[in-house]
């Protein structure tokens, strides 16, 4: 078993005290690793690739909350729409409309987070502040999606000040748009390398992979 149980318990202890939800990022890791954490009582898992998620969902317990945290292509929404718990990386209105359509087909309302581009790098996906405002307005007319909050990825950098600035910016957008932790809104930001800073900056959902499952290939 390649799950770091000790790390899991110490992270969960800190997160529970601060009402932060831990999403265990299991991409590229075998189903047996997920099962090991599940057997400790963990239910929230994050995956990045549609086919991999569909394969794992088919063989793992039905009460797992599957978070899709990768870049989602519109033509693949249909494969995860029947069961996905929360889609983190919604970065266009077109994608949101497709999720709404597939959710309707499955007679569900799917919870979504809008991804905001906060990093300095060009490579990270997400909307800018204006697109975010526009999408939030249009989303009100889509009955089968529920915008639970926002998601972002900070720059991959040792510069703590830069990362903190990016997190603060996302938290500001979160409050500006009246997302409210008291109403169960979700601010998904922070991963293995920067989660402490993310929590300080107002995050209430952290996506952690390598600290729990070890480095990926
Ligand atoms: C892979 C991934 C993570 C987890 O990264 P770690 O550094 O292994 O904790 C978190 N969020 C997203 C969007 C990812 O793709």
Overall 3D form: globular
**Which class best fits the helix and strand makeup?**
alpha/beta
Largest sheet descriptor? 8 strands, parallel
Low-confidence stretches: none
Enumerate the strands of the largest sheet in spatial order, edge to edge or round the barrel: 7-6-5-4-3-2-1-8
Please give the CATH architecture. Answer: Alpha-Beta Barrel
What is the count of DSSP helices, taking H or I runs of 4+ residues?
9
H/E series: HEHEHEHEHEHEHEHEH
- Domain count: 1
Ligands (ions, cofactors included) = pyridoxal-5'-phosphate
Mean pLDDT: 96
Helix coverage percent: 25-40%
Number of strands: 8
CATH class, named Alpha Beta
In percent terms, what proportion of residues is strand? Answer: 15-25%
Quote the CATH topology: TIM Barrel
Provide the gyration radius in Å: 16 Å
How many angstroms does the end-to-end distance come to? 17 Å
Name the CATH homologous superfamily: Alanine racemase
Please explain how this structure is put together:
The protein is of the alpha/beta class and 217 residues long. It has a single domain, classed as TIM Barrel (Alpha-Beta Barrel). It has 9 helices and 8 strands. It has an 8-stranded parallel beta sheet with strand order 7-6-5-4-3-2-1-8. Strand 1, helix 2 (31-38) and strand 2 (44-47) form a beta-alpha-beta unit. The longest helix is centred in the last third of the chain and has 17 residues, at 160-176. The two termini are 17 Å apart. The chain binds pyridoxal-5'-phosphate.
